[in-house]
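comment on this one:
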Amino acid sequence: MTKNKNSSLSTGMAAKEFNRRTLIKRGAALAAFAPVAPMFVKNAFAATSGEVNVLMWGEYLPDSVLADFKAKTGITVNHTKIGDNGEIIAKMKAGGGAGFDLASPTNMRALQWENLGVLAPFDMNKITNIGNVNPGMVAVGERDWNFGGKGSHWVPQLWGTESISWRTDKWTPDGLPSFGDLWEPNPGIDGAFMMGRTYSMMTGCGIWMHHQGKMDFWSSYKDEDTMRKNWEIITEYCIAKKGNLVKFWSGADPQKQGFTSDGVVVGQTWDGPIVSMMKAGEPVAYQTTEEGALAWVDGITLSAKAENIDEAYELINYSFTPEVGGQTINEIGYNSAVIGASDFYSDETKAISQAVYPGDTASKLNAWPPEPPWFADARAEYANKFETA
C-alpha cells in the first residue's frame, strides 16, 4: 500500500503484477495447495424441503451468491447473521443445534466445541467438491475437529487476517503499521483515536510486546499460569492507555462505522470490512503489521440436529467452486479457501490484495493458536477488566 496520504492504488499495474503464483504463495502461509476437483453439479437426488438454515457471519453470503444458488438449486438459504464466535456457540448451545443446519466457527475454537455435543461429523463422500479446497486447511478439520474419532466436524470456507487499518486522510504509518500503533502510534496522534475488539486488541498488544522482547506472548497458550502472568501485564498496560480508545467493536458494520461516523483514526480490524470500504472509495487503508497479521480460517460445521441435510451439502458443494469463491471475495473482501478462486478475482480485488500484503508479508502471518476453554474463560476475565476500567 502506498504511504502518501492522498495517493490511490494503481489498479492496472498492481493487477498485472498479481498472478496465481502470488495467491499460492499467500496460501502457503497457512498450508500448501492441491489439484482442483470437478465443478459443482446439482445433486438430482437432493431432498425437497427447499431450504437450508445457516448460522453464519453476517457478510459471508452476499445477496448475489444466494440468488445464484437458488436459481441453480431451487433452495432458499435462511441466513441468521452473527458477528462473533461466542454468539455462534451461544445460539447453538441454546437448542443443542436445533433450528440450524450449518454454522461457521473459526478454526482455533475446536476445543471449545468438542464437548458441547451440538455438531455432527461430515460424510465426506457427500462433499464432492472437497478436492477444490486448500488441503492444508482441510487437514485442520481432520486434525482439530475430529471429535471422538468420528471424523471431521469442520471444513474450511474463508480465511482472513486481523491487522491495522486507518484513515488515510488523517494518518499514515511510518513503514508497515504495527499492533503498537493502537497504543503508541508512529507518528503520534493527539486525543482519543483508536478502536478494536477487546480481546483482539489485547492479543495484538501482547504480540507487539513479544516483538519488543518484553514477554514470550505465545507461551500464553501453553498453560494457565503463564497465560495469566502475561495477560496481567497486558491488561495493566491497556488500561493505562485507555485514553486512546474511541470504541470497542463487535462485528463488521461497527468497524466501518468507526471510520465513517465515530471519529476513529486507527483501528485493529478484520481485513474484509475495510477492504470493502477501500473498494467503495472511502479514505481508509488496511495492511498487515510488521509483526505479522493474525490469520484465521472460518469454516462450516453440520448441526447435530440438522433437518435439511441434503440441502446443506448442496450449499457446501456450491460454495466450494472457484467461480463462487471468486465472486464471494470480490464482494466481501476476505480470502477464499477454494483453489482457483483467484482466477475469478476482479482487477480491483487483485490490486488491493497486493496492497494489503506487500512483498513477502503474506508468508509471515501469525496463525491464531487453538484456544482451550480455560484460555477463553481467562481471556474474557481480562477483557472485562479492560472494558470496565
In short: Confidence is low (pLDDT under 50) at residues 1-38.
